[in-house]
Amino acid sequence: MERIGAHSHIRGLGLDDRLEPRETSQGMVGQAKARKAAGMILKMVQEGRIAGRAMLFAGPPSTGKTAIALGMAQTLGPDVPFTMIAASEVFSLSMSKTEALTQAFRRSIGVRIKEETELIEGEVVEIQIDRSLTGATKTGKLTIKTTDMETIYDLGNKMIDALSKEKVTAGDVIAIDKTSGKITKLGRSFARSRDYDAMGADTKFVQCPEGEIQKRKEVVHTVSLHEIDVINSRTQGFLALFAGDTGEIKPELRNQINAKVAEWREEGKAEIIPGVLFIDEVHMLDIECFSFLNRALENELAPLVIMASNRGKARIRGTNMISPHGLPADLLDRVLIVSTSQYSKEDIEQIIKIRCEEEDVSLTPEAMAILSNLATETTLRYVLNLISCAQMLARKRKAEAVGEQDVRRAYDFFFDEKRSVQYIQEAGMSLVTDLDENDRRRSGKTKPAGDDAMDES
Ligand SMILES: Nc1ncnc2c1ncn2[C@@H]1O[C@H](COP(=O)(O)OP(=O)(O)O)[C@@H](O)[C@H]1O
Ligand SMILES: [Mg+2]
């Protein structure tokens, strides 16, 4: 069974070849302008033309900022790195803020490394092995052919062992990697298909290869700069990649790796693929992080940085300044801002429909009407969460589809933010639990205005 996440219905940006947003496609609905803008930026990333830039999705909560970023990630393809962090992840005890950001940056830069290997590929004609009297040393000869030529190779101890371990016999088509000595059995030659009694039912038949026996082959793999860092940091080793607990990496090591990668680039052995770093809830970063971001974006090896914020005007963390989206002016200056807006009722209905398909829920038309109405009053996210709760209730009364009463009961059980706040107020509990607020009270300062979530106005 597959677990269904909040964004598991998103499979891309839903754009056509001309980057025009289709009304509903790949799980994406509406929000056409933002999707198109995202598509344009992606195109530039894919052409490798844009790096060290930043863009910001700004808009009210649950208008699809994260969803669009995930859609971008899915469009990029497997080779282009996409890293997603929430700004608050940067504040960790095990490493400094700048180290956490540096790691996120380097995770978003891919290095495509090309390696040439020499292969011996052909059909085995004969393997001849001579053992010494004591059996300690073995020598041998391997005769191998393609349709065009035939060659005899001398075999050493290691190769003989490898061949017998793979159970290579005359008539097998094999490939030998010359540098590592690794032997791969590609199959049985068709020419030998008549000796069927000697093999099992799962034997694969292949043609005898053509052309030269020795071939050059290019293998390409992509790793991120961060992975290279971790593998080369002597105290950690590559196992740290799995544990995720990489600790701080020394700047000297990073410099060495940058120099090495630059060298590979010049020699044509490696290619840099700038990827995408997505920082969600970016207003949670503080002024030190922002100034680091400013510097890091100017670095030659910088990815495209995408940020999302749902604040209109907010205090920049670590200062008393109020600024649009909670970002300092010098950073704002650099970013391309894309705004997301509230959904229309039709869009909301469509998104609910898609989510129902994803969660395998069927709604009666009345339930759908209530849900889409609710979404305009509360938030889209709250309504999407209600779907599975309502389904639970419908199942309990053994109904096929989720009906009006199930939605109503789910609405009674689970509060949205507005009702919850109202409840607290009515119960006479204190609403102030904001630590910053407590600080300010103690120091006698008043709360700066406008530190609130962005609303439609
Ligand atoms: N355009 C869209 N098409 C399909 N689903 C969407 C769209 N926009 C938002 N959603 C869904 O609505 C929910 C809330 O959106 P989200 O991206 O988390 O909002 P934000 O990050 O702006 O607060 C998520 O489950 C998301 O997948
Ligand atoms: Mg979000």
TrEMBL record:
Region annotation (Disordered) ranges: 1-30, 434-457
Source organism, top-level taxon: Eukaryota
GO molecular function: ATP binding; ATP hydrolysis activity; DNA helicase activity
PANTHER family cross-referenced by the UniProt entry: RUVB-RELATED REPTIN AND PONTIN
Stated family: Belongs to the RuvB family.
InterPro entries: AAA+_ATPase (IPR003593), P-loop_NTPase (IPR027417), RuvB-like (IPR027238), RuvB-like_C (IPR041048), RuvBL1/2_DNA/RNA_bd_dom (IPR042487), TIP49_P-loop (IPR010339)
The AAA+ ATPase domain, residue ranges: 51-342
EC top class, as a word: hydrolase
Biological processes per GO annotation: chromatin organization; DNA repair
Keyword Ubl conjugation part of the UniProt annotation: no
Cellular localisation: Nucleus
Gene Ontology CC annotations of this record: Ino80 complex; Swr1 complex
UniProt biased composition (Basic and acidic residues): 14-23
Complex and partners: May form heterododecamers with RVB1. Component of the SWR1 chromatin remodeling complex, the INO80 chromatin remodeling complex, and of the R2TP complex.
Name of the protein described by the UniProt record: RuvB-like helicase
Described purpose of this protein according to its UniProt entry: DNA helicase which participates in several chromatin remodeling complexes, including the SWR1 and the INO80 complexes. The SWR1 complex mediates the ATP-dependent exchange of histone H2A for the H2A variant HZT1 leading to transcriptional regulation of selected genes by chromatin remodeling. The INO80 complex remodels chromatin by shifting nucleosomes and is involved in DNA repair. Also involved in pre-rRNA processing.
Species for this entry: Lentinus tigrinus ALCF2SS1-6
Positions with biased composition (Basic residues): 1-10
E.C. designation(s): 3.6.4.12
